Structure formats: C-alpha cells, structure tokens
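Why does residue order matter? Because the sequence determines the fold. Keep that principle in mind as you read this record.
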Amino acid sequence: MSQSADLMELTEDDIRKHYAAAVAMLEGVDHTPRIAKAKEAPQAEKSAGLGTRRRFRSTTPGLVTRSTARPEGVRLIERVEGVGEDVLPSAVQASVLRGIRRALAIALAAGEAFSEATGLAELKKENLAGRVAEARRAEFGELLAAEALAVLFTFANATSFLLASQASEASVEIGAVEEILSDNAQLALHGALWELDQDLTLFASDDAKLVATVLAYAEQVMEKVALRAQNTPRLAAFNSASYRVEADNLTINGFTPAHAAKGTKLTMTFKKPNEVVGNHIAKYQSMKLAKMLMAYDFDRKLNPFAELGGFIFTFMGDGAPGTGKTTLIQMMAGLVSGYCETAGYPFRYQNLSTDNIDSYQGKSGQNAKAFINNVIDPNVIGFGTIDDIDQLAGKRGDRQSSAGQLEITAVLMESFAGANTVVRGNCTFGMFSNYPENVDDALRQRAGARFLVDGPITRDDYIDILALLMGKNHDIPLGDHTVFAAQEIKKAVAASFEGHSKPHEDGLLRVYERVSKDIGSLDTIAKLGTYLKGIQEADHRFTGRAIKNITDAVKVRAMDFELPDEWMEEPDLFLFKPYDEKKGMIEELRQPITVDMVIQEINRYADSEFRYADKSDEVAIANMVREFGLSEEAKRRYLESKG
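Structure:
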C-alpha cells in the first residue's frame, strides 16, 4: 500500500541504535517515585497482635510532610525471568522482554524525530553548553514535557501492539497508574518501568498473568497520558504526523492506540440472503451495506461512500421476538466475511453482550470502549453488533438501570455521535432489540438508519419459510407455488418503500393528513419542512438529530444501487483501484434525489419513533395502573385485617 504524505518512516537503523539504551534500562535503573507509592503485597502478621506496619513516624515539624521515598533499583529482566518456578526463562518471558525492548527503542526513536521536528534537539545542545537564552527557557521546559508524553505514550502503544499476539484469556485488575512524569523523556520511561515492576511483583504469578499485567499496564498508561496531553502545549508536531515502523506493521498516529490489523475467526453459522424470508428492506440495506464497507480505501483511510454521503455508520433493527434479527446478523457477517476473504482484507466482527456488564465500578464502560475501539480500528473492516441493546444499555432516569448499564449507555452515545467521532467508512454498528422503546431516547436517535425486522408477512413468505425449514427429507408436494419468487429483492423492496408513501402509525397519519389538508401536496422544501415541524409538535423528541438521520437515509436512497457482484468477486475491477477512481465509479451510479424519496424516508423514520414512543408510554401507563391496583388491594386487605 502506498504511504500517505504525512507518514514518516522510522527505519530499522533509527530504532536499533537505541537498543543498547533500552537494554540498559531493562538491566537496571534507579528511580525515586515522585507521585506513586511503592505497592506492597499483603503480608501475614508474624504473631498475634504484632503487625507489619512501620513502628516509628517522624513528629518533627516540617519533616512529617517530606517524602521518605528512597531510590529503588528496577531490574526488569530479573523480574520477568523470575516469574514462575523454572530457573530458565520461558519462551513467553523472552517474548515479553524482547517486546518491551523493541517498544523502548521505538519510543526513543519517535522522541528523537519529535526533537528534530520541533527544534528541541538544538535546545538540548544549548542547554548542555549552558547557553539557553532566558527568553527560551519556558519553551525549552514545555518541549521537554511534550517529548516526555509523546515518548511515554509511544512506549505503551508499541508494547500493547507488539505483545497483543501473546494475550490469553487471563486478565488482571492493576488499579490506577500514577507515576506519569513529564519532566523529560528519560525520567518518564524510568518512572514507567518502576511502576510496571511494582505491578509485576503483585500480579505476574505465571506467564499468562505476566502478559496480562504488561498489557493492562500499557492500556492504563495510554489512557492517562492521552488525557494529560489534551492540556499540554507544543504537541502539534506529534499529533499531526504519523510514524511508520514497517518491520512491525505499526503506525503511530499521535495519541491514538494502534491495533494489530488482524481479523477475528468467526464460528457463527452464516445465512445466505435467500435464507432470510421477509424483512425485505432490512435485508436489502444489509446487503448494500456489506458491499459499501468493501469500498473502504486502506491507503486513504476513508470510504468514498462516507465522503459522498449514504454510508450507514449506525443502524437499529427492531421487531418482535422470532422475526429474524439474529438471522440478519448472520447473513450480513457472512457476506462481509466472504468479501474480505476474497479481497484479502482483515475482517473483525465483535458482539457486545451481557458478559460485558461488570459489577466493578468503571469496568463496564472500559469493556464497551474496548469493543468500540476494536471495531473502529482503521486497519480492518469492522462489524459490531449489540444484540438486545435494551438489556445492555440503561435508560437514564430508570431506577431499574444498573451503574454498569448506564456506563455502557454513556460510552455508546459518545462513540456513535460524540465530539470526537470520526466516520471513516470501514465499519458499522448494528443495534438490535425486541423492545426499542426501553432504549434511552438519545442513544436510540444515534441510530442513523432503522431496519424494521418484521419477519414473514405475506402468504408467500410463510410458504417459503416452511419449505426452507422443512428441508429435503420428505415427499410432501410443494403445490401451486414458486419457492422464493416472493423474495426477489428488487421487486419486494420497491413495494416496501412505496408502502411508506403514507405513514403507518395512527399518530403520524393524523399529522400527515392535517398538514396535507392545510398546505396541499408535499412537493417543496418549505412544505416538507412544515410537515417536519408538525411531527415535532406531536412528538417533542423529534429533534434536529432526527432530521439529520432522515437526510442521511435519503442520501442512502440516492445511492440506491448495488455494487455489482463481479466487483466483489474480482477485486481488481474495483476494490484494488485507487481511491479517486473508486469514488468516480460510485458517482456514476448515483441517482438524483426525488420528493418521493424524502417523504418515504420521513415517514419511515417518524413511524419508528412514534411506534417506540407509543409502546414506551403504554408500558409506563400499564406499570402505573398495576402499581395503583396493588396499592388499592394492599389497602383493602390492611383495613380488613384491622376490622
């Protein structure tokens, strides 16, 4: 793949010249902790009544607040090789040490590049000679702090990336990382190795826990340093440039964690489109979206559909139990997986499930963020699903929602339409629910597209699904019917879209009829805007975000074409072409937007909101009626017992 203009190569020579310094740090450094305190494993008392606390504490005024921390020798090689009972280091231990050495060298090389780009290298030389001008001392201090954070983040980022393949199912909770120092790069690394040594002492009881501890520590450092960097000046040179380490396939993009471009091996049962009966619009849009994802350009890190409009970043599929939501997931995942296998692209599928809700404070949010980061990784084609989202994401203000569920809601809202959300077009998220009315309103509105999963509807649908599920091990005649003729996708979808020329929900239909009676046919922007205002008056939850979702859906309709199957089967015809050429090919297929498209998409979206609101209100009313009934019955029984 060609490199973008702002991508700077960190050559092997640039990295390997720092190996000696990295090994020296691993062999041993002395570090006096500035912020953190030494961690001690719980010790058993030597005898009853005799504790293990320090006996004396200074009471001299002024000395009581002075740090009593002493320099501590950090010998990480000895620490890692001492894990377990074998006197010889294991292959895992050797891999961990080599990974940390490599990460240290990459971090030092990135720091050197940062120094050259910002003029810090010259200031360091002047400082050694005692010639830094008074007017530049503040700049010198700020650049040293910026370099320290850049080097520290790069070290943690590279460590996490290089050791990702060693990860197992083992996990550890190391607590908060504290020794984040920004005086200079060397001190920052010494502090990091000191605290890593502390964590290894407590948690690395075997090889699996060793890797888990190092990875957990690297994740914590990245999170804390990225937060610190938001308010640190002179980091533009690090944020705006990308450093490429070709040998490791590692790209360092500022304070964004790198992920190994590896796909997940799917073990689910895939479904073919003709095995999905009914759900015509949902099936059609899923098939289109699967091909849209494949238009992503790994060099430009952008999808032409995301630039031109019409890319579905988030969607919600709702319907009654048993209507085929899981089948849709299996179909779409199977399509994308097959396309990626043909093109040689890494594909990553992940599902956020109830297993990610944790009683440990903050852990549920971390699990949700990890899920998001894994799917949005710009180096893979990603598909993330959140099945039964009403059980996972809590509704704010609902007393039944746990703290973990509310954490997940907050993460999903920020990730799907937050200030820092970037839609590259390499991934999509599907939220599915039997009870979408129980999903938080703001989170539900972050679903840009709505897939009504209504399952088989017509007589032909029911014959098709019966014939499909019966299989071939019988002699029952089919009768007067052509199997799957009703599932011909283009004909079925056209009929489904036309069905939304008028609203389906009673509340919305009243608004539509009233507005049409007052202003006539909805054939101008002004009249369509009047209709939208009428919907807002009927449902206050119909906000500006709803309008954006509708216009996005209209742009999807303008892209109402399927990329030819040959383009997926023979990647050279489309997938492997340069970005601008792919964009031009897509533009040629784009259709003009019509009034009918806009009306149909307004009705589709508003129907879903009215459906959710009506169900939500009815559920709330039914619950209150039940509570009032219980209160009345309890009161009656109480009075009878008194009488």
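The chain has three domains: 7-36+71-253, 265-485, 500-642.
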